[in-house]
Design goal:
The complex is a heterodimer of chains A (701) and B (219). By secondary structure, chain A is mainly beta. Helix content of chain A is 10%, strand content 53%. Chain A is globular. Mean pLDDT of chain A is 89; it is low at 7-25. Helices cover 16% and strands 32% of the residues of chain B. The chains are: A mainly beta (701), B alpha+beta (219).
Chain lengths: 701, 219
């Protein structure tokens, strides 16, 4: 019901109250704004957002500032079709087009972030205090970016000063749970040199959503982000960029009442880029990128301070890349690139220190056969020695049907390389089981036979010859088809249909029975799944001071084998203490953690006369499944669900004497939390702490 | 927060089960009556027994990577009770392990000696849908493991809950060659795990026992 009303407001209200007069007034602003909205992520060239043949979104600096968001996860959660989902160790990863965090590539200024704990890239790690804009491209983009760009790409573009002299700003935000966020931005520009420095400190006392225990839902933490950058325009045609980023986080780690410890994260990135324009037709880029991610934690028994556990994770990525662009004529252009990824990982529970070397090559042809049609063709090849090499093509078009109406469609291949765990794990769990990476089964299982951990050959249930080949990357074919409609220049309506057909999803399998009664597990390509849906976005600039926006996503995400099992009557459920019963086809709910409906509605009001702006944002998420309560491995309607919820956020900011901005706001106005209601209940939503009051002060200089 | 459907269904389902039970008893009675009137000269057929065993306690020592030991709790279908007999038992429980009185020991400490010719297999379906024994499917315990090892699903952290996998029906040949089918309903005392999930190793299960030698039908 509540969802319906948002939908009605978002869709119908703008259409009903159109007034020509207002349109005239704001036409120029809107046009300028649309021209300013350029993105680089979709094609690796500078393109106007509105001209792209791919579904893309842009979150501008203005929105980041007015909403007082400070971390990447919080701003993404307010965008249509995006939601951050926590994994079991607390990392907050993005879900895009119904695909998990593992399948979305996250970039800073075009280069990838590493350090995925259990597959999830924790977005709360990223401060957005020095961000110009966030670009989001949906649908498989492996044709340009290779692995992980299966569901899409998120690219965070950092801000660079364009005014001569020394400029900067100082920001502090203080909120409930003793949340403190401090930003210092310092920029220096003289003619062709720009220097920038950014420091962020973030800390919180954490919170506890379960009053029945003393264990924090979020442990206290603090972190720092340091970012420096140098832009040097050697000549008009030769440009140089060097940037470095360092992230440091320390946190308490107290998962139970009997153990206590700490966890540490350290991450750095270094990025050097030089580009040169030879003539009107040719230009080239040389890029070098390196990133190191390091995490460690320990736990001690509280009683005697003896060590309970310890783990570390140390990942390195080095990537040299060259890229060339050739402009055939005004209508057509080529880009091509060549590079190498070198990756290593050292961590606990690994049999070796794996080293990956994967060369890649890609090209893209962008053409406008006539003034209404844009066609994009691209492909990329990623070579690999440890898993099967990948060829990822993509094709897209955009056709301007009338002045106000355009259609666009794209189809592409995406893949995600098997992660280090799936290839090299050698873990003995506390309950006695063993997990082996695909590439170590052939050496470890015979060893376990010799040592008696596996009693004899009969205990091996999967022939070891199955592990002679290479594991396939998880891969998908993604389809997007959309229409954009601008009935009037101030109103933008967009609809996009998407489908991702995913196969070779990697799952665990029992390889052998151990003498201790437990099993040896490894990985294989088995599962097939799909996600499909419709995304709708609308925004209407009613006047220069008032803008409203609404978005909605409908999503179906299902495991194809599960559909088959329900159809064949092979799925059963039971309740505690009573017998099993057969499940029907329509009892299957789909993949875990997916909401069928997600919607948002936002109003932004700016008063230039009194120098203030205010906004209200509402986000809705329909019910979703989180636990297979009845142990049949499927999410069916008899399992536990997290009920639908809505989050309301508001903010108001006022500028004094041009330099000072004071802001106050409330996140989660109605204090929604998922507190357990009984002993056997859990807190499923750990990343919504309840109502937060905050105030911020920003000083510009 | 959590779905209410869950609980509602629990009610309808238990009602459904009771109805089913009544129905099957009715069917059995009819079958029995008609059968005995056909074969007047043979021995009178014994009635099929449908029972529920509650809170059968099956403790163990060790576990969590340590060697498991401790006496198995043995059960006899013809008496419908637990037993300490070394020979007159059909299945036995220790922790999550279930052994049958047939075959050889898998090698764990304190495993009861098999003296009978029991067998077992696990089939998929609802309890009621298993109406006939597939005599070719029986296996026995051996060095490589227990036949009835895959009856449950382990939830992992944080609860470590053991739940009977829905749709898994255990079909058993008793030590003296008769047949029974079993559906395990819970591994926790009074079929409800407590907050700490440590009231475990209490089996509650339904069984149907066919006491007539050579009879392979459960109806």
């Amino acid at each position: 019901m509540r969802f319906k009303s948002i939908f009605i407001i978002a869709v119908l209200f703008p259409l009903l109250c159109l007034s020509q007069q207002q349109v005239e007034k704001t036409k120029d602003t809107v046009l300028t704004q649309q021209l300013n909205e350029v993105v680089v992520t979709a094609t690796r060239t500078i393109r106007q957002l509105s001209s792209l043949p791919l579904p893309a979104q842009l979150i501008a600096r203005k929105e980041l500032k007015e909403t007082n968001r400070t971390r990447l996860n919080t701003i993404l959660n307010e965008q249509t079709g995006l939601i951050t989902v926590q994994n079991f160790i607390g990392g907050e990863g993005i879900q895009m087009q119904g695909l998990d965090s593992e399948y979305t590539l996250v970039l800073i200024d075009g280069v990838p972030l590493i350090g995925r704990s259990a597959g999830t890239l924790d977005l709360s790690r990223l401060s957005i205090g020095n961000i110009k804009q966030i670009e989001i491209v949906k649908g498989a983009s492996s044709s340009l970016y290779g692995s992980e760009a299966l569901g899409g790409v998120i690219n965070i573009i950092t801000e660079k000063s364009n005014k001569n002299g020394v400029h900067g700003n100082l920001m502090h935000r203080y909120g409930t749970f003793n949340e403190n966020e401090t930003n210092i931005n310092l920029d220096y520009k003289k003619e062709n040199v720009t220097l920038g420095a950014f420091v962020n400190r973030s800390s919180s006392d954490g919170y506890n959503l379960n009053n029945a225990t003393n264990i924090n839902t979020l442990d206290p933490y603090f972190n720092y982000t340091f970012n420096t950058r140098l832009n040097y325009n050697v000549t008009e045609n030769t440009k140089f960029l060097a940037s470095a980023r360092y992230f440091l986080q320390d946190s308490d780690y107290i998962p139970t009442s009997t153990e206590s410890g700490e966890s540490k994260t350290r991450e750095w990135n270094a990025h050097v880029k030089a580009n040169h324009k030879y003539n009107e037709k040719w230009s080239s880029y040389f890029e070098f990128y390196a990133s190191r991610y390091f995490a460690e934690d320990y736990l001690n028994n509280i009683e005697d301070n003896s060590q309970f556990s310890e783990s570390f994770y140390k990942e390195l990525l080095i990537r040299p890349e060259i890229r060339a662009a050739y402009k055939v004529n005004e209508k057509s252009s080529f880009i091509g690139g060549l590079g190498l990824d070198y990756e290593t990982l050292k961590r606990t529970d690994f049999s070796t220190t794996p080293k990956f070397t994967s060369p890649f090559v890609y090209f893209q042809y962008d053409t406008n056969p006539n003034e209404n049609l844009n066609i994009l063709l691209g492909a990329r090849f990623d070579g690999h020695n440890e898993y099967n090499s990948q060829f990822s093509p993509k094709a897209a078009f955009r056709y301007q049907i009338t002045d106000k109406l355009a259609a666009k469609g794209s189809m592409g291949y995406g893949f995600k390389a098997p992660d280090f765990r799936q290839l090299y794990f050698d873990l003995e769990g506390i309950a006695g089981y063993t997990i082996l990476g695909y590439n170590v089964v052939n050496t470890r299982v015979p060893e376990m036979l010799d040592s008696g951990e596996i009693e004899n050959e009969n205990d091996i249930v999967v022939p070891l010859s199955n592990f002679n080949g290479k594991l396939n990357p998880e891969n998908s074919i993604s389809y997007n088809f959309g229409v954009t409609h601008n009935p009037i220049s101030t109103l933008k309506l967009e609809v996009n249909f998407f489908r991702n057909d995913i196969k070779d999803l990697i799952d665990t399998q029992l390889v052998a029975n151990k003498t201790n009664g437990s099993g040896v597990y490894s990985y294989k390509n088995v599962k097939k799944a799909f996600t499909q849906g419709i995304e709708f976005n609308s925004s209407w600039r009613i006047s220069n001071s008032l803008k409203i926006a609404g978005g909605y996503q409908f999503l179906l995400a299902k495991d194809k084998d599960a559909i088959e099992a329900f159809k064949n009557g092979d799925a059963f459920a039971s309740n505690p203490g009573s017998g099993s019963f057969k499940l029907n086809e329509d009892d299957y709910f789909g993949l875990f953690n997916r909401s069928k409906h997600m919607a948002n509605f936002k109003i932004f009001y700016t008063n230039t006369q009194h120098n203030f702006n205010t906004n209200l944002r509402v986000n809705y998420r329909s019910k979703y499944g989180i636990l297979d309560t009845n142990s049949n491995t499927y999410l069916d309607r008899y399992d536990d669900f997290v009920e639908a919820y809505m989050l309301w956020n508001c903010a108001i900011n006022k500028t004094f004497k041009e330099k000072y901005e004071l802001g106050i706001g409330i996140d989660n106005i109605f204090d929604f939390t998922d507190e357990p209601t009984s002993n056997n209940d859990f807190t499923f939503i750990n990343n919504i702490p309840g109502r937060i009051f905050y105030a911020k002060l920003n000083i510009q200089f | 927060m959590k779905s209410k459907i869950h609980k509602n269904n629990f009610k309808t389902n238990s009602i459904m089960n009771k109805t089913l039970k009544l129905l099957s008893i009715l069917v059995i009675t009819i079958a029995f009556t008609s059968c005995s009137s056909d074969d007047d000269d043979s021995q009178p057929q014994l009635q099929i027994e449908a029972e529920t065993v509650s809170n059968l306690y099956a403790p163990q020592q060790g576990g969590q990577g340590q060697p498991v030991s401790g006496e198995f709790t043995k059960f006899n279908f013809s008496t419908g009770t637990t037993t300490t007999s070394d020979t007159e038992w059909d299945i036995a429980f220790r922790g999550t392990s279930i052994i049958i009185n047939g075959g050889t020991s898998s090698g764990t400490t304190d495993e009861a000696e098999r003296t009978g010719n029991g067998g077992a297999y696990i089939t998929t379906g609802t309890f009621a849908s298993v109406t006939e024994v597939e005599t070719g499917s029986f296996l026995q315990d051996s060095e490589t493991g227990h036949v009835l090892s895959n009856w449950y699903t382990y939830a992992g952290p944080p609860t470590h809950e053991i739940s009977p996998t829905p749709g898994k029906i255990l079909v058993i040949r008793t030590h003296d060659g008769k047949y029974a089918k079993v559906e395990i309903l819970s591994y926790y005392q009074d079929v409800q795990p407590n907050a700490e999930y440590n009231n475990y190793r209490y089996y509650t299960f339904n069984y149907v026992y066919q006491p007539n030698q050579g009879e392979t039908s459960f109806e």
